[in-house]
Amino acid sequence: MTTMAAGSNLLVDLLSGPRPAEWDSLREAAELRLAGRDLPTTQEEAWKYTDLKALAAISFGPAPQATVDISAYLLPEMVGTRQVFVNGHHAPHASCASAVPAGVRFLPLSTASEACHALGTVKNGVTPELFEDLNSARFEDGAVILVPKNLKVALPLHLLFLTKADAPIAVFPRVLVVLEPGAELELVEEHHGEGTYLSCPVVEVRVGEGAILRHERVQREAPEAFHIGTLKAEVARHAQYHSRTLSFGARFSRQHPWVRLAEGAEGTLDGLALLDGQQVADTHSFMHHAEPNALSHQLHKCIVDGKARAIFNGQVRVAPGAQGTDAKQQSRNLLLSETARVDTKPQLEIYADDVKCSHGAAVGQLDPEELFYLESRGLNADDARNLLTYGFAADVLQRVPVASVRRALRQLVMARTQAASLGVLA
Amino acid sequence: MLSIKNLTASINGTPVLKGIDLDIKAGEIHAIMGPNGSGKSTLGKVLAGHPAYEVTGGEVLFEGRDLFRMAADERARAGLFMGFQHPIEVPGVSNASFLRLAYNKKAEAEGRDELDPLEFDDFIHEKIKLVAMREEFLDRSLNEGFSGGEKKRNEILQMAVLEPKLAILDELDSGLDIDALRVLGDAVNRLQRADRALLIITHFPRILETIQPDYVHVLSGGRILKSAGKELALELEERGYDWVLEASAAGGAR
Ligand SMILES: Nc1ncnc2c1ncn2[C@@H]1O[C@H](COP(=O)(O)OP(=O)(O)OP(=O)(O)O)[C@@H](O)[C@H]1O
Ligand SMILES: [Mg+2]
Question: A122 CA to middle of ligand 1, Å?
Answer without folding.
Answer: 57
